[in-house]
Amino acid sequence: MERIEAPEYEFTDQFDIMDRIAAKNSLRPVPPKAKVDTYGCQQNEADSERLRGMLSRMGYVFTQDEFEADVVVVNTCAVREHAEMRILGNVGALSHAKKARRDMIIAICGCMVQQKHMVEKIKKSYPYVDLVFGTHELQNFPELLERLLKPKRRRVFSVSDAQGRISEGIPVHRDRGVKAWLSVMYGCNNFCSYCIVPYVRGRERSRLPENIFAEAREIIASGYRDITLLGQNVNSYGKDLNSGVDFAYLIEEINKIEGEFVIRFMTSHPKDATRRLFETMASCEKAARHIHLPFQAGNNRVLKAMNRGYTKEEYLDLVSMAREIMPDIVLTSDVIVGFPGETDEEFEDTLDVLERARFDSLFTFIYSKRKGTPAADLPDPFTRQEKQVRFDRLLELQNRISAEKHAQYVGKTVRVLIDGEGESGEYNLSSRTSGGRLVHLMGDKALIGSFVDVEITDSTTWALFGNIL
Ligand code: SAH
Ligand code: SF4
Ligand code: F3S
Predict the structure, then answer these.
(1) What CATH number was assigned to the domain covering residues 413-468?
(2) What is the per-residue pLDDT across 152-192, written as a single tens digit (0 to 9) for each?
(3) Ligand 3 atom closest to Cα of 135?
(4) What are the C-alpha distances in Å from 259 to residues 62, 192, 263, 286, 430?
(5) CATH class entry, domain 172-406
(6) CA 149 – ligand 3 centroid, Å
(7) Which ligand 2 atom sits closest to the C-alpha of 79?
């Protein structure tokens, strides 16, 4: 194996700062409180676990109530306008807490503030926001926070496009539970024409395999039973390391860690999915029988305009290959309705993909214009209502397919991981199959975190119901 140039550095200087802040906080009669709000995808959830890890190390305890928080961090998403509007609304509402407690610190970080126009907006219209830092500044959070803890404090804006290297060694504070996130890479190189992610997250950077394995072992040793490997396109993991490692290798190695647990991953881009990936999944008993394979649109002209790098036929071939190798695979996907210029006729191809691929479930989005992306400059002649009509048809078709697929489980015995308390009437436990299907159960709460065999007794569009055997 050739030498790997490590795209990373250790996080040591920030530890001194964290220790200084912790020392000050320890002198207070009660520990200060922090609240971290997270929007967007699992990558952001994983980043927030690092923010909490740093806060915890600095002596903060956590609260859900902004009126008692000394520090509020809002970790934002920019993927659709709706997400941004919600975030700005909630940041607006924080002004009440700030009025009640003038020394509180409000910080906004993440994808949304990686856009210049958003930083300007916050500077002008949200004067009570003290700190804004971008996705490439996460590891500098202690240093930025320390500047605000000084007596004469001024607003701090730290956003840049310089993506630097991956910081290893940032403390992580995971919620106690059954499931854990593990980022294997950051950024995206694909530039799908509608998508803001490459602009706000930078280029693909893979973590070194040994760091990933060390974290995986730690996660399993801490009692987590469901581990999700994260990246915007995990199928291109390792390409930037030039050492011959690929994503399938990560699955193979993590599969060797002792214990009963499930390995999940997301997201995998169809253009880079390979037979090797599917065969590895099939041969690794801990790999979940689930693949999330976003197709976005069914029409080849639209797929090209989206810059997705595959055709409808290639996508369907990939689905057939996955099912041939793993007949029991659960398949889920993402789709966008109303990409600029997508006609009613072209939309029919999207419905056709649903009929042919028969996804177990689907995440459906109406196209949202993102400033700075190529698609934002395309003519967009169809109205919101016209797109809504298509969206409703899509949902109706998918709901029928999901219900049919779920009905096929009734009478069967499946192995599930009980992952929490249930929210469905007398069914007091919730669990997931290897394929990620939700199964409501009745039983002792002490079973949370255990794998059990269940008989499926009933199903709906959204979930299954079962009895523990
Ligand atoms: N990297 C992942 C997707 C991350 S974003 C992948 O390529 O599969 C999650 C989903 O949001 C995308 O799959 C897409 O369906 C949707 N999405 C992204 N940008 C969007 C936009 N501008 N409007 C509507 N939906 C969008
Ligand atoms: Fe966005 Fe495409 Fe990258 Fe996914 S692969 S994050 S949709 S640019
Ligand atoms: Fe949103 Fe950023 Fe994830 S834009 S979807 S939080 S990578």
Answers:
(1) 2.40.50.140
(2) 889 999 998 887 778 888 999 998 889 999 999 999 999 99
(3) 2
(4) 31, 39, 12, 9, 22
(5) alpha beta
(6) 29
(7) 1
